[in-house]
Amino acid sequence: MDIVTVAFSTLSLLNHVSDSRDLTKEEILLREQSVRTLKESMRYNEVAYQKLIAENEEEKV
User: Fold this and answer.
1) Which one, 6, 31, 41, 53, has the greatest CB density within 10 A?
2) Residues 6 or more apart whose Cβ sits within 8 Å of residue 29
């Protein structure tokens, strides 16, 4: 499993758990790390997408 899938799965699980009880300190830290991982992945993919768009624009010229 890739890190993004693990982060998303972790968030889903912790969200389900938090419906029935308060999260422990460790679970809160794990949730925060999962959110950071997903945000970093989104930024990386956005940069890669922008580079691809720029390359396609250059090819058109």
Assistant:
1) 31
2) none
5's CB contacts (< 8 A; 6+ apart) are none
Output the six-digit token pair for 61.
């010229």
* Alpha-carbon gap, residue 46 to 42, rounded angstroms: 6
| Angstrom distance (rounded) from CA 36 to CA 28 | 12
- CB contact at 8 A, 8 and 36: no
Q: Does 59 score more than 90 pLDDT?
A: no
pTM of the predicted protein model: 0.77
Q: Domain coordinates of the chain in residue numbers?
A: 3-60
